[in-house]
Amino acid sequence: MSDTPLSDVMAEYADTKDPQTFARFVELFAGSTIGIVTHGEQLGAGMTTYGDGKSRILSFADPDARSRWAAGRYNAGVQGAVLLRMAADNPCEGILVNCATREISLVIDRDTARAALDPPPKKTPWWKRGKVG
Description:
Blueprint: H1 5-16, H2 19-30, E1 33-36, E2 47-48, E3 56-60, E4 76-79, H3 80-89, E5 94-98, E6 105-109, H4 110-117
Parallel strand pairs: 3-5
Antiparallel strand pairs: 1-3, 1-4, 2-3, 5-6
Helix pairs in contact: 1-2, 3-4
């Protein structure tokens, strides 16, 4: 098994642009430890406006892997679900995730972060529904 599972899915998405691969990436992100840049004693994540000038949380996939792309750029690790909540609750455009194996990054926008945290309710099977009429 790879020591860079999140980065592997990021690279796959970068190559294919398959929406199912992106959905798998977001799901894996939520359950992974993510590298971030913190400032001071309280938990807070550094922000970036890289690329298009929109403010996003700066993060790094697979922080335990030795990475030539991200080495020394982060100083803490946090669960991806925490970053999704931060992106959903704060006035930013989402999360910029840098890959550990290739010089690529993906954006999880605010709406996607919210959807990952609050998935739509599962439909009740027809046989468990109340009678109509």
